[in-house]
Specification:
heterodimer; A: alpha/beta; six-stranded parallel beta sheet; B: alpha+beta; five-stranded antiparallel beta sheet; 4 helices; 9 strands
C-alpha cells in the first residue's frame, strides 16, 4: 500500500466502522428496516445518538423516503435494509432513484461470506439483482476494504450524474473488527465524471442563441441536481436573454412559475404554449433534460426546424434519441456560469425585434389558456380535481411548502396547477413512474424539514400501494398531509382506456376502497373528507391547521381527464385540448401510437 | 438524422479487474438491446489490476456512440477506445478438430498447410489445428474444413489493438 496514506484505526466491529464512515459523510438520518443479517449494524445504531434511524414499514418506502430526503436537501439519502427480501423489496426504489438521478447509498445485509452461494436463509444475489438498478454496487468481502467502499459509495452517489449506490454487507464483515480511515481526497482510480464544459462548445452555443429569432430554453432535473445556485443562474440567464423558458416534470421549480417568461411545463401534458414553442423554435437550449419520450412525442416530428443545444452531465444522454447540433458535457451550474459569461462577452447584438415577434406568437398560444376548466360553484356540485389543486395551492401560499405526488392523473394536475418558485420543493417519480412513491417520499421530506408543510398530492389507488407508512408517520410524529384526489379509478389508466381502447375500463375501477377517514384514524392520524365543492376550502383549512398527519379524502369528478394531451406517437403540434376547447382541431391516435406507452 | 446505416465496431475497454465488471458490461449490452458479435476479456497488467475487454458489435453511428458513452460511464471503466475509428489489428485464435481417414484426412492437412494452421494434436483418425488470424480468415478456413470432416471448433473471439504508436492508456 501507499505509505502516504494515513494510518488506520482498528474499530471493534465492521458495524462501528460503518457508522463512523457514515458520520464522516454527513449522514444524520437512515431510513431502514432490521433483519437477521444487519443486526450488528442495528446494535451499533442503538449505542449512539448522532445518526437517527427512521423505522419504515416496508423497504421500498425506505428508499422512497431517502429519495424525498435527498431531493429536498440536496444531500445523499441513506437506506439500511436486511438481506434477501429486504434487498429485493428495495429494488423498485433503487430503479426509481436511478431513473430520476437521485443520490442514495443503500446498505444491504448479506449472509456471512462463507455461506454466499449456498442458498442460505434470506440469501439473495443482491449485487447481481441490483447491478442494473443502481449507478454502481459493491459486495464487501474483506474487512480491510469496508470503509474505503463506504466512502467511495458516497462519492459515486453524489458526483457526476447522481444516482443510487448499493453496498452489500455480509454479516461476518459487520461483526469482525475493521480498520477505519477518513475519506480520501485522492481522485478515484477509474471514475472521473466531467463537470466543466468545453469553452468552445459554450461559444458555439452562445453564437447560435444570440442569432436566434425564435429561441426556447428547456430546463430539466439536471438544473435542480446542480444545486439551488444553478436555478438562480438559470433565472438570471433567461431574464438577461429575454428568452421563453419551459420546465420538464423533473425541472419544476428550477425557474419561477410566476415569471412572465415561464411557459409552464412541456411534454405529454404540458401547456399549449410550451409545446408549440418547442415545435416552432429555431434554437433550443436544453439544460439538464434528456429528451424523454414524454417530452418529445413523435421523434421524427420533434421540433423539426430547430438547431439544438444540449447540456448534460451524462455524455450518454447526448445524441441518445435526438441528434443535437451543439453538445455540452458538464454540470448545469458550470454550464450556466459559462453561458452567462459568454453571453456578456459575445459582441453580436441580439435581434430584439425578432424576439418580440416570437413573444407575440407565444402570447397568441397562451391566450388559448390550455389549462382552462370549469368548476361549478353551486352548492352540491362535484369537485373538479384541477380546482382542488388550485385551491390547495392558494391556501398554502406564503408557507414553506413541499409537494410530493404519487403517479397518475393527480400527479399531472399537481404539476399543472401547483406553482413552484424554488427548486427542491417538488418531489415526483418522473422516469420510473412509481405508484406508491408520494407518501414515503413525503415522509423523508418531513424528516429533513420538520417545521415545513409537506403535502403528498395523491390518488386513491397509488397511495394504497404504500399506505402502511401511515404507521411511520404516527411513530415519528411526521405531520404529512395526504391530499387524495379520489376519483375511484386508476385515473390515468381509465383515461387511456377511454381515449385508446373504446372506453373499455378493464380493471381500472378502484373497487372496495377503504373509508380513508377511518383508515387515517386507525393509524392515529386525522381523517377529513370533502364530498362537494362547498366542503373543499374548509377541509383544506382544517388539514393545514392540524399539526398531525392528515388524510384528506377529496371526492372528485370521476370522469375528468388530463388535458392538454399529446397522444403517444403524435408530434407537439397535434395536441388534444380539453372539453373547454370544443371545435379546436382534435386529431386522433394513430395505430403506431397505440403501441407506445 | 446521421448514420442510419449499420456499421461494425471493435471497441476496447480497459477496466478495473474486479468481480462483476464483465457482468456490468454484458448487462449493459443486453439491457439496452445492443449486439455482441464477439467479446474477449483477460487481465493485462502485471499485477492483475486491470483487464482489457474487446467487443465487436454493430449498430448505427448513433448506437455505436451510445455504446461507447454507456461503457464510459461505468464506474470501473478506465478507458473506452473505438479501434474501428482508425487502422487497427484484429486477431482471433481457433482450435479446430477434424475427423476422417484417407483422402479427406490428407486434404485437410494440405488445406491447413495453405492457411498456415498448426497441427497441435493428431491421431490416425483426427487432426486438431490451431489457427490465428482475422475473423474472415478463420471463417474461410472453417468453410473449407466442413466437407473434409470438421467436427468441433473452439474460438477465442477477437483481440484487437491500434496500429502504430497509438495506445489505449
Amino acid at each position: 500500500m501507499d505509505g502516504t496514506i494515513q494510518a488506520a484505526e482498528l474499530m471493534n466491529s465492521g458495524a462501528e466502522a460503518i457508522l463512523r464512515a457514515l458520520k464522516a459523510q454527513g449522514v444524520d438520518t437512515i431510513f431502514g428496516y432490521p433483519g437477521g443479517a444487519v443486526l450488528p449494524l442495528y446494535d451499533a445504531i442503538f449505542q449512539q445518538n448522532e445518526i437517527r434511524h427512521i423505522l419504515v414499514r416496508h423497504e421500498q418506502a425506505a428508499v422512497h423516503a431517502a429519495e424525498g430526503y435527498a431531493r429536498s436537501t440536496g444531500k445523499v439519502g441513506c437506506v439500511l435494509v436486511t438481506s434477501g427480501p429486504g434487498a429485493t423489496n428495495a429494488v423498485t426504489g433503487l430503479v426509481d432513484a436511478l431513473m430520476d438521478s437521485i443520490p442514495l447509498v443503500c446498505l444491504t445485509g448479506q449472509v456471512p461470506t462463507h455461506l454466499i452461494g449456498n442458498d442460505a436463509f434470506q440469501e439473495a444475489d443482491t449485487t447481481g439483482i441490483t447491478r442494473q438498478a443502481t449507478k454502481h454496487n459493491y459486495l464487501v468481502k474483506r474487512s480491510e476494504d469496508l470503509v474505503r467502499v463506504i466512502h467511495e459509495a458516497f462519492q459515486v452517489a453524489r458526483t457526476g450524474r447522481p444516482g443510487p449506490v448499493l453496498v452489500d454487507l455480509p454479516k461476518d464483515i459487520l461483526i469482525n473488527p475493521a480498520p477505519y480511515r477518513e475519506p480520501s481526497s485522492a481522485p478515484h482510480r477509474s471514475y472521473r465524471p466531467r463537470t466543466e464544459p468545453d469553452p468552445r462548445r459554450i461559444e458555439e452555443a452562445v453564437a447560435l442563441l444570440k442569432r436566434s429569432a425564435r429561441p426556447v430554453v428547456y430546463a430539466g432535473g439536471g438544473v435542480i441536481n446542480a444545486g439551488p445556485e444553478a436555478s438562480r443562474l438559470l433565472t438570471e440567464f433567461v431574464r438577461m436573454t429575454g428568452f421563453p423558458c419551459t420546465n420538464t416534470l423533473m425541472g419544476l421549480g428550477s425557474f419561477p412559475a410566476s415569471d412572465g417568461q415561464y411557459l409552464g411545463m412541456l411534454g405529454m401534458h404540458g401547456t399549449y404554449e410550451a409545446n408549440l414553442a418547442m415545435h416552432g423554435c429555431d434554437v433550443m437550449l436544453n439544460l439538464g433534460a434528456r429528451f424523454d419520450d414524454r417530452v418529445t412525442g413523435r421523434l421524427n416530428a420533434f421540433s423539426p426546424g430547430s438547431k439544438k443545444i444540449h447540456a448534460d452531465i451524462d455524455p450518454a444522454n447526448i445524441n441518445k434519441s435526438v441528434a443535437v447540433d451543439v453538445a455540452i458535457v458538464g454540470d448545469a451550474l458550470a454550464v450556466l456560469k459559462a453561458l452567462i459569461a459568454a453571453w456578456k462577452h459575445e459582441p453580436h447584438v441580439q435581434d430584439r425585434a425578432a424576439l418580440a415577434q416570437w413573444w407575440q406568437q407565444i402570447d397568441v398560444w397562451r391566450a388559448k389558456d390550455s389549462l382552462r376548466y370549469t368548476q361549478n360553484r353551486d352548492r352540491g356540485s362535484i369537485i373538479k380535481p384541477q380546482y382542488a389543486v388550485e385551491q390547495l395551492f392558494k391556501a398554502t401560499r406564503g408557507r414553506e411548502t413541499f409537494v410530493t405526488t404519487e403517479v397518475g392523473q393527480h400527479q399531472m394536475w399537481a404539476a399543472q396547477y401547483f406553482k413552484f418558485e424554488k427548486p427542491n420543493h417538488w418531489m415526483t417519480s418522473g422516469g420510473l413512474g412509481t405508484m406508491g412513491y408520494g407518501l414515503p417520499a413525503a415522509m423523508g421530506v418531513q424528516v429533513a424539514h420538520p417545521d415545513a408543510l409537506v403535502i403528498d398530492i395523491a390518488g386513491e389507488a397509488s397511495t394504497l400501494m404504500n399506505i402502511q407508512e401511515m404507521g411511520t408517520l404516527a411513530q415519528f410524529r411526521l405531520p404529512v398531509k395526504i391530499f387524495i384526489l379520489n376519483n375511484k379509478y386508476m385515473g390515468m389508466v381509465r383515461q387511456w382506456q377511454e381515449l385508446l381502447h373504446g372506453s373499455r375500463y378493464s380493471n381500472s375501477y378502484s373497487e372496495a376502497l377503504p373509508d380513508f377517514v377511518k383508515l387515517a384514524e386507525s393509524f392515529h392520524a386525522v381523517g377529513l373528507r370533502a364530498e362537494k365543492v362547498e366542503d373543499l376550502d374548509r377541509v383544506i383549512a382544517e388539514m393545514l391547521a392540524v399539526d398531525r398527519p392528515v388524510i384528506a379524502d377529496i371526492c372528485v369528478d370521476e370522469k375528468e381527464n388530463v388535458f392538454p394531451m399529446i397522444p403517444s406517437g403524435a408530434p407537439h403540434n397535434e395536441m388534444l385540448l380539453g372539453p373547454e376547447h370544443k371545435g379546436d382541431n382534435r386529431p386522433g391516435v394513430t395505430d403506431a401510437g397505440m403501441a407506445l406507452v | 438524422m446521421p448514420g442510419q446505416n449499420l456499421r461494425a465496431a471493435t471497441i476496447s475497454v480497459l477496466v478495473e479487474n474486479e468481480s462483476g465488471v464483465l457482468a456490468r458490461v454484458i448487462g449493459l449490452f443486453s439491457g439496452r438491446g445492443y449486439n455482441i458479435d464477439s467479446l474477449t476479456v483477460a487481465p493485462v497488467e502485471r499485477d492483475g489490476s486491470k483487464s482489457r475487454i474487446t467487443i465487436v458489435t454493430q449498430g448505427t453511428e448513433m448506437v455505436i456512440e451510445q455504446i461507447k458513452a454507456q461503457l464510459d460511464r461505468l464506474v470501473p471503466v478506465y478507458k473506452v477506445l473505438d479501434l474501428s475509428e482508425g487502422p487497427h489489428l484484429s486477431r482471433e485464435l481457433a482450435l479446430i478438430k477434424v475427423l476422417g481417414t484417407g483422402e479427406k484426412r490428407a486434404e485437410a492437412l494440405r488445406l491447413a498447410d495453405a492457411f498456415r494452421a498448426r497441427v497441435i494434436d493428431a491421431t490416425t483418425e483426427s487432426f486438431t489445428f490451431e489457427l490465428t488470424g482475422a475473423t474472415d480468415k478463420l471463417d474461410a478456413f472453417l468453410d473449407l474444413m466442413r466437407p473434409v470432416g470438421l467436427a468441433e471448433v473452439s474460438r477465442t473471439g477477437v483481440a484487437a489493438i491500434a496500429r502504430g504508436m497509438k495506445t489505449i492508456g
